[in-house]
Amino acid sequence: MKRDVKKVVLAYSGGLDTSVILKWLQQTYACEIVTFTADLGQGEDVEPARAKARMLGVKEIFVEDLREEFVRDYVFPMFRANALYEGVYLLGTSIARPLIAKRQIEIAHSVGADAVAHGATGKGNDQVRFELGYYALDPDIRVIAPWREWDLTSRAKLIEFAEAHQIPITRDKRGEAPFSVDANLLHISAEGKVLEDPWAEPEEFVYSRTVAPEQAPDRPTYVEIEFRGGDPVAVDGHELSPASLLTRLNELGGANGIGRVDLVENRYVGMKSRGVYETPGGTILATAHRAIESLTLDRGSAHLKDELMPRYAELIYNGFWFSPERLMLQALIDKSQEHVEGTVRLKLYKGSAAVAGRKSPKSLYSLAHVTFEDDAGAYDQRDAAGFIKLNALRLRLMKKGRG
What is the pLDDT of residue 119? Predict the structure, then answer.
């Protein structure tokens, strides 16, 4: 029995895995357990976790609604960057981990805990994301990762342990899970089991937030999203809080079959994995944000952002939210958003979110300069000749020099 830990804060969902972890920590470390359950908009009641933790002997229990903080301080800053990992993934799981890690460390400090624990496995990205967050905020914190220590290496062993220690198991947890799920207000992901063959198309039962595009309404839905400082602030003229706004976009996107992604991605730990993601509101938001930037960012700013975006997205995917380089990039991105304001109109139809219009009081679009009609002297087309010759100079010299 390990006795060098006095008090540990466990990231606790109330499910099978973390309930087994809770009991295992009590046995293995003979320490006091504090549970922390975060409501990030996963779509299920988090209060049962409080009752279950109390039943398992926990005295200090934290259940917190972090939806507004999650969207305001994590999702929106990331969307200012138009972040996509490997060109597709909107980072729904990745962006939730630093907030959970931050609150765990804050709780650990407030209750005098000397350790934190999580339920991420030793094969995935989440162990890295949690622990990089922990260490960035408290370099001396002790981290316990049961999946890297115990011999409960299968679902059957977890259930056997739970039954031996009178840990309640819901009926749906007794059978072999067809896939694992992670959810928050931004997205829901499904991985493993029936999804492990990348050639096999996901069955419709895998999806829970979106209707099949084929079953979506036959008439398009139009939505207008207003931006200020690069962040969305209103939908169809109604100002909403960050979490409420994303919830509304999720409803619209889900009803129109928007936001499904079937992706084979490169995990930070080195292996490839196949995931099926649903990000209805985020997909709408990403499209709208790029549309308003197209009016309000100059070419140099827009292109620099696009060059930096893959690096920024990779930092979030790999767990470096609290790193100095991510903070440096965020400062640059936020500076670029000072004049990103206006309204975007989108047409939602059978899985697609297409831009139908955009306007801004800070628009850099000049009809006088781009029109094919008489531009009344706004642009002298003869100037283009010198511009082209100067840009062609090196090409001409190279051709002459090499024959």
Answer: 95
Query: Which token pair is 4?
Result: 């060098």
* pLDDT greater than 80 at residue 394: yes
d(CA 348, CA 266): 30
Give the torsion through C-alpha atoms of 289, 292, 295, 297, to 10 deg.
Answer: -40
Cβ 360 vs Cβ 292: under 8 Å: yes
**Residue 1 clears pLDDT 60, i.e. is over it:** no
**H or E element, residue 25:** helix 16-29
User: Rg of the chain's alpha carbons, rounded to an integer?
Assistant: 25
Count of Cβ atoms closer than 10 Å to residue 318 Cβ: 18
- Which residues does residue 173 pair with via DSSP β-bridges, in sequence order? none
For 94, 228, 271, 272, 320, the CA distances from 266, given in Å and listed in that order, are 13, 34, 6, 5, 16
- Contact, 227 vs 221, CB < 8 A? no
- State the pLDDT at residue 375: 59
Q: Mean pLDDT over residues 225-231, rounded?
A: 98
- Token look-up 């279950």 returns 52
Residues 251-290: tens digit of each pLDDT: 999 999 999 999 999 999 999 999 999 999 999 999 999 9
Residues carrying an active site annotation: 17, 97, 126, 180
pLDDT one-digit tens code per residue, 10-63: 999 999 999 999 999 999 999 999 999 999 999 988 999 999 999 999 999 999
Domains and CATH numbers, the chain: 7-67+95-176 (3.40.50.620), 182-297+340-359 (3.90.1260.10)
Which amino acid is residue 351, in one-letter code? G
On the CB side of 102, how many CA atoms lie within 13 Å of its CA? Answer: 15
Alpha carbon distance 194, 174 (integer Å): 17
Q: How far apart are the first and last CA of the chain?
A: 80
H helix or E strand, kind and range, residue 283: helix 280-296
Residue 13: in which H helix or E strand, if any?
A: none
